[in-house]
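Input (structure):
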């Protein structure tokens, strides 16, 4: 069991050092041999042999034999026997008995007692006490105290942290300890001694009971199978299991933490270096780039390399000469360089060792051509790419900072972080707020009363005329699907409405437009289909509108009708005063004029009488009007009169009926209207009275649900007045004296009939009530309250906090506020344009230097295209990145490191942040390019590096070039000469180019001028690194990395800043 958990007396190796230094466990140490093939091991330890094949082990150590088959074990160690059946064990070791039943153990080893209950252990070993609770141990070792919690140890000589293990005391010390305990027991009070004795008795009883139970379990399960070592840990409840596993987990966690660089949320592709399966079908991968041959042994099922197996092949070269190549380091790859080009045959040699019997090797020979010239095409390196956790990153990921800072342009504008500042609010006067009750409602939204209302049919066009002297800026429709407008011509598209058509115009020297609300019908219903040039709306200066002056239309009074046919009055809205029928934005050079357009289907002609009844005094006249819709050119004729002794009537060509009272009485006069083929008779009820009459001061009122309006009646005498609503579901009515009060119920229109009686004589008058909207504005807490310019208003809720105002706030709030335009700082991308805002939120314009780079901004603050585009490049060293913040800060593109070749070992290694970075940048909408940090020493390795890049970027959108990063590292790549380095660059770029991407080379000025032939790289993009006010490099370059200590929102530390002249 001690071997199982590596609890031996031999010194511990430094785990971290072994992992980081790439410790080769295959080599022979202290005479011990170790062969690892997934789960197989053979070794020799003090004369003992160990063979592990999946689940089987035999060994001899000190005369002890050990056989493990699934779940069964027997051994003799110094006369002790060991039987393991799932959870039970018995043994005799130096006189010690051991019984394990799931969680319980008792033993006596040199006078030591041991009790384990899952996680707890107490014992005395040579006078030493041991308590284990998961991860905690307390002991006294030669005057030293030991506390273990994961990996910490303190010695009481100086209490300094130290690494150490459990030791043993001499028996003399143990005896002294026992004597001290006995003395302490004798010095206890009587009650304490009784309690202690009772506890010991209970403990002994538990030991006996556990021993009996363990023995019985041993007999029942003696033939059970013993699972493999890994299964034991998962399936057996072992003594101290939790504590041992916790310590082991903590150790491994520290190793992983030491080798990983912020690998959180990574979705690493599982390309492990080695395949640790015991057996399987072996496949060969034969790859040649140029005068080389790489033979890879892979598992057919997983595609991964098979390591720790001594593969060998027999090679026949083009001249027929044979040779044997072996995988000496057993990494699953045999690689030979500098061999003669031509056709080779490869045959895999048989594995003679019995332990490799489960491998199925390829039979026969395979042919491969060793290439003379490089094809510059991708080769398969996927199973050779390592994760950073598999290597010593500190030794492999190196770089020399040899790009010096030559000079820096002095910033003309201080860089500030990109933020959206909290909004500010400006108080406005209430007279700039539109009274909701002065508006009409339609389909749940409130609209201003239009300057003019018109109705057209589907397909009909109408020319709209703006106010006289207006210079039109633009025309707009708030619902072009119903009624569209083009240069003032409105066209009915489909039935619906009302639709608001708005004309925005300017008028010099006038604050209030003079409307010319005459619309000219256009007989031809053909809409204009060819639009004019797009209309533009110039930027409106931010000004405080002055008080609007809604016009009030007071037309020819058409008040309630009386017995004598007279009428008076005007329209009214809730709260008194006239309903506004005109509106124009004032306080600005821009004004608006609106039309409310209703589109109807083409319908049959109709005719109605208004009013349908008349009251007239004897000897006087009254009139009624026939109104025809959907037809022009109707003819009218009086065809009947039920009582010409009471009244006579005549009708003119326009449908006006004139009734003359003759004597008191009732009459029904019929007028027949001919509308083409449609003929309709209309009956006019006439009541002739002897001097009684009633008139109303209004013919129409508008209310809202639960709101009221009043109409005043004028009568000829002192009779009684009553009123009736034609639709009580729309509005109700009440009379008090001569005042008729209507109350809105729900949206709609109703006719109110007012009757005046004097004795048996009566006279009637009518008016209409329109209930606008389903909600009373005074109770409407949802509909946004806006100012006369249509901007949302806000009300204060205290502590500099504001909320959007609703209609109801108009009647309760005392102050109203406008939210100022959003304010920003730093780089911002707004509506597709890039700006830089100072700390005070103002935009910069003109030529500016920001973080050492010069930019040109237009008069509106937008970055001038052509002055270069800002971008960054990132790798694991930049940590976790908020890509949305990066995008909003004005960054246009990012170049992400895919990986690097190790500086010392030359392995291909993926950047642990690559996948996270490329996914985040793409999702944020940034243009994405990539780069690879090279350590290639020849063209073949350059092709391999390009192949790794192509493998990793497959499936991602790459919209910027793919660069080879060529700079100093202190590694293997620094030693090659200029010609070789140039060839490396060309090999990489050609391979990338042949795969369909745009290749490029990154280097600083020194390397471009002295360590490679930059002129030979004319076919590729050049990314120059030079930290200066202006580049002094005389060669061509497409991107300029001008500093490495930049700041960008979304990245916590420094970042490389670049200017791109690619034009995209």
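Output (sequence):
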């Amino acid at each position: 069991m001690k071997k199982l958990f590596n609890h031996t007396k031999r010194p511990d190796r430094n785990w971290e050092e072994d992992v980081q230094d790439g410790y080769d466990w295959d080599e022979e140490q202290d005479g011990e041999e170790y062969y690892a093939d997934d789960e197989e091991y053979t070794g020799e330890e003090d004369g003992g042999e160990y063979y592990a094949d999946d689940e089987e082990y035999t060994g001899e150590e000190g005369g002890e034999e050990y056989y493990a088959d699934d779940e069964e074990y027997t051994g003799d160690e110094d006369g002790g026997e060991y039987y393991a059946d799932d959870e039970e064990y018995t043994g005799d070791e130096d006189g010690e008995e051991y019984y394990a039943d799931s969680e319980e153990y008792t033993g006596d080893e040199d006078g030591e007692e041991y009790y384990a209950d899952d996680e707890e252990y107490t014992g005395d070993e040579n006078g030493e006490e041991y308590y284990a609770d998961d991860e905690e141990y307390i002991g006294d070792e030669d005057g030293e105290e030991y506390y273990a919690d994961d990996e910490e140890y303190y010695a009481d000589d100086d209490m300094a942290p130290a690494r150490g293990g459990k030791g043993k005391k001499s028996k003399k010390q143990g005896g002294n300890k026992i004597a001290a305990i006995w003395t302490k027991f004798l010095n206890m009070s009587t009650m304490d001694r009784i309690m202690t004795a009772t506890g010991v008795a209970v403990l002994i009883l538990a030991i006996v009971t556990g021993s009996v139970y363990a023995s019985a379990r041993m007999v029942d399960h003696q033939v059970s199978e013993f699972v493999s070592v890994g299964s034991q840990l998962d399936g057996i409840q072992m003594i101290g299991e939790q504590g041992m596993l916790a310590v082991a987990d903590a150790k491994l966690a520290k190793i992983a933490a030491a080798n990983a660089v912020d690998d959180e949320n990574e979705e690493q592709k599982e390309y492990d270096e080695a395949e640790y399966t015991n057996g399987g079908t072996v496949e060969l991968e034969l790859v040649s780039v140029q005068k080389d041959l790489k033979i890879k042994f892979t598992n057919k099922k997983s595609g991964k390399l098979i390591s720790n197996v001594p593969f060998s092949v027999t090679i026949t070269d083009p001249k027929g000469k044979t040779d044997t190549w072996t995988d000496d380091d057993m990494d699953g790859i045999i690689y030979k360089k500098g061999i003669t080009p031509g056709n080779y045959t490869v045959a895999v040699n048989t594995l003679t060792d019995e332990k490799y019997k489960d491998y199925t090797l390829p039979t026969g020979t395979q042919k491969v051509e060793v290439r003379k010239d490089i094809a510059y095409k991708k080769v398969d390196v996927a199973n050779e790419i390592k994760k950073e956790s598999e290597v010593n990153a500190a030794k492999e990921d190196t770089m020399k900072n040899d790009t010096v800072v030559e000079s820096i342009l002095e910033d003309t504008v201080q860089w500030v972080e990109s933020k959206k500042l909290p909004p500010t609010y400006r108080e406005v006067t209430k007279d700039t707020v539109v009274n909701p009750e002065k508006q009409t409602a339609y389909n749940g939204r409130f609209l201003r009363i239009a300057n003019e209302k018109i109705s057209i049919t589907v397909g009909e066009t109408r020319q709209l005329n703006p106010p006289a002297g207006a210079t039109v800026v633009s025309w707009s429709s708030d619902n072009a699907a119903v009624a569209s407008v083009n240069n003032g011509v409105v066209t009915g598209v489909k039935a619906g409405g009302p639709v608001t058509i708005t004309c925005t115009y300017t008028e010099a020297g006038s604050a209030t437009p003079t409307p010319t609300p005459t619309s000219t019908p256009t007989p031809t219903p053909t809409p204009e289909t060819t639009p004019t040039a797009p209309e533009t709306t110039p930027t409106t200066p931010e000004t405080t509108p002055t008080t609007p002056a809604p016009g009030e239309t007071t037309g020819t009074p058409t008040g309630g009708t009386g017995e004598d046919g007279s009428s008076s009055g005007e329209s009214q809205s809730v709260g008194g005063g006239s309903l506004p029928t005109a509106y124009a934005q004032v306080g600005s050079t821009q004004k608006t004029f609106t039309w409310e357009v209703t589109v109807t289907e083409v319908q049959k002609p109709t005719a109605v009488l208004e009013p349908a009844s008349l009251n007239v005094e004897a000897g006087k006249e009254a009139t009624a009007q026939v109104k025809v819709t959907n037809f022009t050119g109707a003819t009218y004729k009086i065809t009947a009169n039920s009582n010409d002794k009471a009244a006579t009537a005549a009708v003119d060509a326009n449908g006006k009926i004139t009734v003359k009272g003759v004597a008191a009485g009732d009459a029904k006069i019929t007028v027949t209207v001919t509308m083409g083929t449609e003929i309709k008779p209309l009956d006019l009820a006439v009541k002739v009275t002897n001097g009684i009459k009633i008139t109303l001061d209004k013919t129409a009122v508008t209310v809202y649900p639960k709101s009221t309006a009043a109409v005043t009646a004028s009568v000829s005498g002192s009779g009684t007045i009553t009123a009736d609503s034609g639709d009580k579901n729309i509005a109700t009515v009440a009379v008090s004296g001569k005042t008729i009060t209507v109350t809105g119920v729900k949206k709609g229109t109703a006719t109110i009939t007012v009757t005046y009686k004097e004795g048996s004589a009566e006279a009637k008058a009518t008016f209409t009530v329109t209930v606008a909207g389903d909600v009373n504005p005074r109770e409407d807490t949802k509909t946004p309250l806006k100012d006369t310019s249509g901007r949302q208003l806000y009300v204060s809720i205290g502590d500099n906090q504001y909320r959007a105002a609703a209609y109801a706030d108009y009647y309760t709030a005392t102050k109203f506020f406008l939210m100022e335009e959003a304010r920003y700082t730093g780089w911002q991308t707004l509506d597709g344009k890039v700006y830089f805002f100072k700390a005070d939120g103002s935009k910069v314009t003109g030529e500016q230097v920001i973080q050492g780079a010069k930019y040109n901004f237009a008069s509106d603050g937008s970055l001038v295209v052509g002055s270069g585009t800002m971008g960054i490049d990132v790798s694991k060293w930049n940590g976790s990145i908020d890509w949305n913040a990066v995008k909003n800060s004005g960054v246009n593109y990012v170049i992400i490191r895919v990986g690097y070749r190790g500086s010392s070992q030359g392995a291909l290694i993926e950047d642990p942040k690559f996948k996270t970075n490329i996914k985040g940048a793409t999702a944020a909408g940034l243009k994405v390019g990539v780069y690879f940090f090279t350590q290639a020493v020849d063209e073949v390795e350059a092709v391999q590096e390009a192949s790794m890049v192509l493998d990793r970027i497959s499936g991602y959108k790459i919209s910027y070039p793919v660069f080879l990063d060529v700079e100093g590292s202190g590694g293997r790549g620094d030693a090659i000469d200029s010609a070789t380095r140039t060839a490396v660059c060309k090999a990489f770029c050609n391979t990338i180019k042949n795969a369909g991407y745009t290749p490029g080379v990154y280097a600083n000025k020194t390397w471009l001028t002295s360590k490679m032939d930059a002129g030979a790289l004319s076919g590729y993009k050049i990314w120059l690194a030079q930290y200066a006010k202006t580049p002094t490099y005389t060669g061509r370059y497409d991107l300029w990395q001008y500093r490495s200590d930049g700041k960008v929102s979304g990245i916590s530390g420094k970042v490389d800043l670049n200017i791109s002249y690619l034009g995209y």
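Notes: The CA atoms of residues 249 and 406 lie 50 Å apart. Residues 190-220 form the longest helix (31 residues).
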